[in-house]
Design brief:
This protein has 182 residues and is mostly helical. The protein contains nine helices and no strands.
Length: 182
């Protein structure tokens, strides 16, 4: 009988703890679990020069999870800065793959390059070389005859980055596409 009472008391205490709001200190303890250790291992591989694209994707996923699941953590800013670093490196990786596809054995795997560039465009809106990505998307879509898509990317480029060295080329292409008044 005593065992049943102790069990019921334990269950009641667990319920009370799980429904009570967590303080930032408790969240910090919760956030320093396996997910954070995974991120630390990934960054260690990075510092050793052994980081791969799947490691970057894993780090992005884990950091987003930490940020979402630990909104009051005192380490949230640290996690966000790490996520920005990982996103920048991921975008650089995809840009490198896109360039490889464009120059692979002279075959020019344009669709593969377009796919990687769209991945950067859609997934990394704060990428430091976004102007280049928009220009390349416009240029490649133009080269495959998709002038609608080319126009979309060139317009985005001239709007988002009017002072970029690529914006002038995009403006010129857009100007040439305008119907001339007779």
């Amino acid at each position: 009988m005593l065992a049943i009472l102790l069990l019921q008391l334990s269950v009641s205490l667990l319920r009370a703890q799980s429904s009570a709001p967590q303080s930032p200190d408790i969240q910090d303890v919760t956030c320093t679990t396996a997910n954070e250790r995974r991120v630390e291992r990934i960054f260690k591989r990075r510092s050793e020069g052994r980081m791969r694209s799947h490691s970057l994707a894993e780090a992005e996923e884990v950091l987003r999870t930490l940020i979402q699941s630990c909104p009051k953590s005192s380490r949230r800013t640290e996690f966000q800065k790490k996520l920005e670093t990982v996103e920048e490196e991921s975008a650089e990786f995809h840009l490198g793959v896109a360039n490889f596809y464009l120059h692979a054995d002279g075959r020019g795997l344009v669709q593969g390059a377009l796919s990687r560039l769209k991945r950067i465009y859609d997934g990394y809106p704060h990428y430091s070389r976004r102007d280049l990505v928009l220009y390349m998307l416009g240029d490649l879509n133009q080269s495959v005859g998709d002038t609608e898509a080319a126009e979309k990317y060139y317009r985005s480029l001239t709007t988002e980055f009017p002072d970029s060295k690529y914006a002038e080329r995009a403006k010129q292409w857009l100007k040439e596409r305008q119907p001339r008044d007779e």
